[in-house]
């Protein structure tokens, strides 16, 4: 049934275009054939990752609670005790597109998968949320039942720009659930000690997040697993500073990863994190010892014993994004380090697949096998016979009963007002794609140094006009021009440049009648600040006249005309306080909030939403609320923002080089569409997506359906050019290596916002 208020669609950066799946191989492996797909996923398009084994006692408790977990495979409790039946807990997107925990029972080459919600119900494992880092504790006393420890974002944080990541414990026998993270604190990456008594977490230092990206400011905190069975107290205590991703080797030894910020360029003040894996002795309480070599990147440890640890490594760091072939040392691989022989690691995935990225190792069979996840790119060749990827939509569970939510596999998605046409840009910002009832096709392609981005349909449904920006993407000191593609979905498109003067012009959006265009530009600013302007004639461009809408020494950008044509919503740094840093964590200006301006009275400007709560001082309005878009009825606004900070340790994911901006997730909030003055600093908002990825550039369309792929024939290539389109950087290299596309990267030259 179509939702009454339409659909929100957005693009997810750093999410690989091919599904992740979970594999293992022996320690040590002998070759490619040693690798085993633990979930036997075959042609499944589910994303499965962050796996960990389920101990026998916990697996039997799960079977007792939900017998069909084992019955469909023919397994019994005796099979679990003997080791013939094994279990795996992992994150999967098979539940309404959400990133939630699932358990798998494997027996006699059969695999049964259930979500925790299917076992324990939606009261505990329900709603729009993200779950991660499942591990098991308890069982150490008669009154300490087996339990699962995990992270969930189901509970909103009380403060803005704050993580929603809280660690919970669920009793596997009763389903009783307890919050282990105290209110006002935020944890990631829990790990349980071998005895099942203690849990280590990566705790946000100072109970806050300050916008850091790759190198989160976390410390390792220890606490009890079962408060009731352990004297009624958590005994929560900080043990290791500047640390994350703990892994217990014994009840006394913890391995973890840590970043040390260093200058790579002596001529620059910029510091970059260098990652290593360390070993900490709790009883000795001395300074942790670095286990991995200083000249490589090492992260996400999985302890095998007190002296051995499996880690993900990168031996040669990339400093430039592009389409070239990567050296094997530039891939993320799994290795085993022994503190007695640190210069002689056991190579695991280099032997199996040397030119693919592998993530988050875990230990099986006491270290005789090592598990991990990677992009299952071999399915490209098996299913399609070519190294290209399908472009389609994925429906996600929505927090709104009357609004659908979709993830689209293209950047800057835009839907025509009547819902008949979809347009987007590819991951390289080189081609403009259109999908409608005729199918999927390329309508414009740019090679060379210039990029195409910020696609937007003219809002008059009778006009088949698509706008696009052309020039170096994500630069402020280079010219960007706005082009119109007339007859965009017809057979003979016409291209016309609308702007002139070598300014940085971007983010065009027409009024409802389709006669005028609002856009942002650096014109009138020698220091490259940006304000909003209106092209008075959408067909003639600047020849028809340009009117200034906003005026100030700041950045106004990401603009959209309201459905009634009376307001323009935009993102701006105009409230950035004096004394704040020029750049936010080395990227853009920071301090972006959402404003509305009256078109008829441009001096009437209202701030609608900030990331951090407005307050005096440099911290006021810090953060990002960007790419605002009105709902079709004008009653709400959707944005991409860091209101919920981050939901996973970024270093555990595909390495992002000079990120565009880790905005975070998609949020919406309601406004008064009749009185602009009543929308000052809206307090309430809704989190639409809960994800470890960067969701960006949302669009809200009145169109709604259960199957947008059918509506726009996304899977049908309508012409020869689309069917044979080859990106500058192939999805798979000729030597079988995974390209940077498989990390989910935007494969464009180095840039800044």
What does this structure look like?
This protein has 753 residues and is mainly beta. It is built from eight helices and 48 strands. The longest helix is centred in the first third of the chain and has 10 residues, at 56-65. It is globular. It starts with 6 loop residues before the first strand and ends in a 30-residue tail after the last helix. Mean pLDDT is 88; it is low at 715-720 and 749-753.
Give the helix/strand layout.
Elements: E1 7-13, E2 20-26, E3 36-37, E4 48-53, H1 56-65, H2 68-71, H3 77-82, E5 86-95, E6 98-107, E7 110-115, H4 116-120, E8 131-137, E9 147-152, E10 166-171, E11 177-179, E12 187-192, E13 198-204, E14 218-224, E15 237-240, E16 244-248, E17 253-263, E18 271-281, E19 289-290, E20 297-303, E21 308-314, E22 333-338, E23 346-347, H5 349-352, E24 359-364, E25 369-375, H6 378-384, E26 393-396, E27 404-408, E28 411-415, E29 422-425, E30 431-436, E31 439-445, E32 451-457, E33 465-471, E34 481-486, E35 494-497, E36 505-510, E37 517-521, E38 531-535, E39 546-548, E40 556-561, E41 567-572, E42 593-598, E43 605-609, E44 625-630, E45 636-641, E46 665-670, E47 686-687, E48 694-701, H7 708-711, H8 720-723
Parallel strand pairs: 1-27
Antiparallel strand pairs: 1-48, 2-3, 2-25, 4-5, 5-6, 6-7, 8-9, 9-10, 10-11, 12-13, 13-14, 14-15, 16-17, 17-18, 18-19, 20-21, 21-22, 22-23, 24-25, 26-27, 28-29, 29-30, 30-31, 32-33, 33-34, 34-35, 36-37, 37-38, 38-39, 40-41, 41-42, 42-43, 44-45, 45-46, 46-47
């Amino acid at each position: 049934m179509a939702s009454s208020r339409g659909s929100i669609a957005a693009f997810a950066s750093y999410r690989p275009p091919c599904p992740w799946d979970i594999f293992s191989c022996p320690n040590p492996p002998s070759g490619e054939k040693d690798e085993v797909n633990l979930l036997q996923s075959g042609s499944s398009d589910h994303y499965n990752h962050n796996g960990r084994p389920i101990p026998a006692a916990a697996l039997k408790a799960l079977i007792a609670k939900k017998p069909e977990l084992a019955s469909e495979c023919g397994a019994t409790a005796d099979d679990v005790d003997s080791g013939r039946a094994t279990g795996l807990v992992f994150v999967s997107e098979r539940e309404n597109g959400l990133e939630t925990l699932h358990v798998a029972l494997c027996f006699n080459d059969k695999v049964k998968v259930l979500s925790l919600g299917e076992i324990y119900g939606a009261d505990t494992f329900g709603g729009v949320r993200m779950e991660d880092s499942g591990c098991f504790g308890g069982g150490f006393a008669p009154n300490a039942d087996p339990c699962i420890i995990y992270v969930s974002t189901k509970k909103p944080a009380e403060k803005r720009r704050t993580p929603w990541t809280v660690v919970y414990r669920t009793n596997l026998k009763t389903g009783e659930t307890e919050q282990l993270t105290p209110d006002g604190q935020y944890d990631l990456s829990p790990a349980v000690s071998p005895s099942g008594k203690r849990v280590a977490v990566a705790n946000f230092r100072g109970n806050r997040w300050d916008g850091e990206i790759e190198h989160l400011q976390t410390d390792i905190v220890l606490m009890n697993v079962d408060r009731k069975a352990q004297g009624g107290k958590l005994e929560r205590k900080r043990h290791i500073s500047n640390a994350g991703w703990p892994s217990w080797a014994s009840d006394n030894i913890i391995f973890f990863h840590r970043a040390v910020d260093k200058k790579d360029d002596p001529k620059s003040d910029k510091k970059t994190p260098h990652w290593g894996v360390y070993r900490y002795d709790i009883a000795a309480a001395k300074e942790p010892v670095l286990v991995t070599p200083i000249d490589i990147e090492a992260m996400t440890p999985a302890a095998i014993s007190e002296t051995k640890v499996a880690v993900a490594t990168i031996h040669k760091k990339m400093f430039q994004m592009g389409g070239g072939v990567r050296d094997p040392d530039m891939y993320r691989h799994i290795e085993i380090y022994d503190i007695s022989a640190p210069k002689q690691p056991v190579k695991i995935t280099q032997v199996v697949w040397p030119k693919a990225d592998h993530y988050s190792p875990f230990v099986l069979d006491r270290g005789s096998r090592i598990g991990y996840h990677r992009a299952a790119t071999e399915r490209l060749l098996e299913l399609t016979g070519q190294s290209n990827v399908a472009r389609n939509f994925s429906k996600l569970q929505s927090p709104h009963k009357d609004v659908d939510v979709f993830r689209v596999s293209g950047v800057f998605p835009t839907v025509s007002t009547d819902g008949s046409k979809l347009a987007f840009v590819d991951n390289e910002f080189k081609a403009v794609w259109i999908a409608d009832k005729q199918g999927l096709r390329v309508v414009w392609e740019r090679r060379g140094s210039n990029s195409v981005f910020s696609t937007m349909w003219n809002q008059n449904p009778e006009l088949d006009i698509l706008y696009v920006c052309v020039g170096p993407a994500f630069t402020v000191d280079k010219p960007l021009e706005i082009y119109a593609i007339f007859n965009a979905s017809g057979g003979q498109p016409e291209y016309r440049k609308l702007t002139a003067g070598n300014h940085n012009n971007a983010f065009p959006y027409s009024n409802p009648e389709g006669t005028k265009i609002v856009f942002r530009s650096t014109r009138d600013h020698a220091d490259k600040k940006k304000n909003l302007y209106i092209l008075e004639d959408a067909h003639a461009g600047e020849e028809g006249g340009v009117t200034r809408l906003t005026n100030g020494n700041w950045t106004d950008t990401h603009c959209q005309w309201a459905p009634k044509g009376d307001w323009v919503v935009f993102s701006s740094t105009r409230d950035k306080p004096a004394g704040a840093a020029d750049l936010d964590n080395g990227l853009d200006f920071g301090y972006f909030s959402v404003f509305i301006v009256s078109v008829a009275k441009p001096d009437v400007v209202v701030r609608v939403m900030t990331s951090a709560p407005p307050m005096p001082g440099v911290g006021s309005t810090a953060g990002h609320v960007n790419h605002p878009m009105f709902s079709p009825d004008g009653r709400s606004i959707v944005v991409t923002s860091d209101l919920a900070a981050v939901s996973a340790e970024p270093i555990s994911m595909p390495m992002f080089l000079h990120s565009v901006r880790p905005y975070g997730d998609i949020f919406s909030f309601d406004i008064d569409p009749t009185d602009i003055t009543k929308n000052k600093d809206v307090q309430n908002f809704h989190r639409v997506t809960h994800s470890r990825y960067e969701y960006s550039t949302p669009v809200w369309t009145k169109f709604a359906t259960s199957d947008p792929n059918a509506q726009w024939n996304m899977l049908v290539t309508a012409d020869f050019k689309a069917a044979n389109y080859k990106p500058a950087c192939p999805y798979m290299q000729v030597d079988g290596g995974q390209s940077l596309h498989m990390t989910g990267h935007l494969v464009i030259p180095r840039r800044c916002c």
